[in-house]
Design goal:
heterodimer; A: 269 residues; mainly alpha; Serine Threonine Protein Phosphatase 5, Tetratricopeptide repeat; 12 helices; 77% helix; B: 195 residues; Rna Polymerase Sigma Factor, Chain: A; 9 helices; 0% strand; elongated
Amino acid sequence: MTPEEKYELFEKHCSQELSINEKARLDKLIKDDVVKKELQVYKELHVHLDTNFNTENQKAALAKNLKKVGDSYFAKKLAEKETKQEVKKEIKHGVKEEIFEEPVKKSKVIKLPSWAYAIAASVAIVFGVYFFSQGNPTYNNFVSIPELSITERGSAEESIKNAETAFNTKNYAKAEEYLTELLSEDEKNAEYQFYYGISLLEQDKYAKASRAFTKLQQGNSAYKYKALWFEALNKLKQKNYDQCAALLHKLPKEAEDYDQAQKLLEKLD
Amino acid sequence: MGNTKLHTDQKYIEALLQNDTVILNEIYEKFAPKVIGYIKKNSGDESRAQDIIQETLVTVYNQAKEKGLQLTCPFDAYFFLLCKRRWLNEIKKSSSNKVTINEEVVSMDDESVRFADETELFNAKHELFTEMFDQLGKACKELLKVTFTIKSMEEVAQKLGQSYAYVRKKKSLCIGQLTELVQNAPQFNQIKNLL
């Protein structure tokens, strides 16, 4: 048998296309340990190539996201370290000034114990956070939930009607249930996916919503950019402003929500 | 791995598969500090640590995607061990000088070590396969890409203007050539047992 014939048998074995005769030939062939091992490697390569070619995009998206998550984690870590050092510095300065001023003014100075400075600092931080958060945009300012209308597609299937009613009456838990059912029969349906994501987001099921929106973003449906916009709103709802802004920047000009996104970006700055 | 019960930390594996930002954040919050600490203690810095963490997570993803990794041990020890070994490899590669390693006493159960070993072997195999694929000729690379991304071979045949049997034969020859390349590579001995 030539190597060509052997590899063709291997290939047919992997794609389950062996005839009975060919299977018998292959069985005979792999009685030889060397050939058996070779088939094993061939099979492994087959799986490897299949997985790699079909997950290239997904893997690139993960790497990109990991970089982003990593960057923000390390930046946050650095910021925390700096804040700690600054608070320490301030406390030191404060104490020094007190001591310095004492002999000049000869007035009575109440020396504060060091913990008092810590309290003062925390009060300042609380105030800061309070006033700062006043200015932050919220999910409710920006979200506008589209209406779900799918029954007109000719079929008056019960679950479709139910999903539509539940969603449009803001009963998102029920809507999630019905849409899950619809998706189990038609998992690639982008419209179901999209409204399913919103139903989850409205129930604060952030991670699950994220998954639904991310899937849509990777696809090529009409909901690709809608999903990106809602994923940004998902981050906004979680007060994850950096990630929200990063997603908004990805929204192209031709997207329907581009103008809203720019407004939101302005507020986030 | 039989019927042993899945660990609740399997959620981190799922998060990698789903690219779930919230849980990926949690991975960094929970597991990065220990890795950063170790790398800094062993002549590295934070930016190197970030790379090591990211590369390790991608490796875990690869294994999960191709082999369906099912974690029956905590993610913590498993992940730390993988990052640590990756870092040690890196400093071994980059410096001809002897490096002193500040070993931390971290208790490792056998299960975590077993999982880390498996992932490491998988990764060695993955790298070897990728490297050998690069050595294939352009025609083979393209043919393989087309035949694996378009699922129906009839469609592929039509696209290439060839018969189905011809395309399948070509495909088998390309993978056959790749098989030979892999088996003849010096690294093959290390991963043989995994196959």
